Amino acid sequence: MSTSSGTARMPLGRKLLIVALCVGVAVAGTLVYFLVRGEEAATYEFPGEHHVIIYLDRDIEDDVLEQIESELQEHPLAEQVQFESQAEAYERFKDTFESQPDLVDRVDAETLPSAFRVKLTDGDRSEEFIQEFEEAEGVYQITDLMELYRRYEPACIAFEEKGVSPAEGDTESILVEIEQACEQFRVGF
């Protein structure tokens, strides 16, 4: 009777999969850590001009649009209200995604909603402001840029302080996505 005391060999593909999984978990864990410890990180002043974007239904009636604009102009938290038409939204979209011409070619002005971009007198009260408008007739969706900023800016600061960045030539890792999002914060909304 012969017995084999050798160990089984793991295929290289499985080893690489395990390594990739471990690296992914480590990166995700690091990001979560920086997001959770946001209060401890240094803070920068909000870089954007607008705190809230109120996207409108594409088929909004003129009288409903005028009513929303009037309410926004009179609201005590609204410091500045700027209307953005579908054509203006399309121009912004083309500028934002100029490095992705295939994406730009698939979108036209009628695809994008018009919106109100609102600067608040107190950005910390953005949630309160949104609650007043989120169920209004003609409102499709509201984006709270202040909430996004509060959530992600501490991680951007921490990544920058620690010198974490994608490797040269890396165009597809999560670090590239994080770097792009952080750059958007630095440039403004």
Short structural description:
The chain has 189 residues and is of the alpha+beta class. It has 7 helices and 4 strands.
Helix content: 40-55%
Report the biggest beta sheet as strand number plus sense, adding barrel if it closes: 4 strands, antiparallel
Number of β-strand runs: 4
Count of alpha/pi helices: 7
Radius of gyration: 23 Å
Q: Give the CA-based shape.
A: globular
Helices and strands: which structural class?
alpha+beta
What features would you highlight for this structure?
about 190 residues, alpha+beta, 4 strands, 4-stranded antiparallel beta sheet
Could you characterize the architecture of this molecule?
There is one protein chain. With 189 residues, this protein is of the alpha+beta class. 50% of the residues lie in helices and 13% in strands. The protein is built from seven helices and four strands; from the N terminus they run αβαβααβαβαα. It has a four-stranded antiparallel β-sheet with strand order 2-3-1-4. Helix 6 packs across helix 7 (174-187). The N and C termini lie far apart (74 Å). The relative contact order is 0.18.
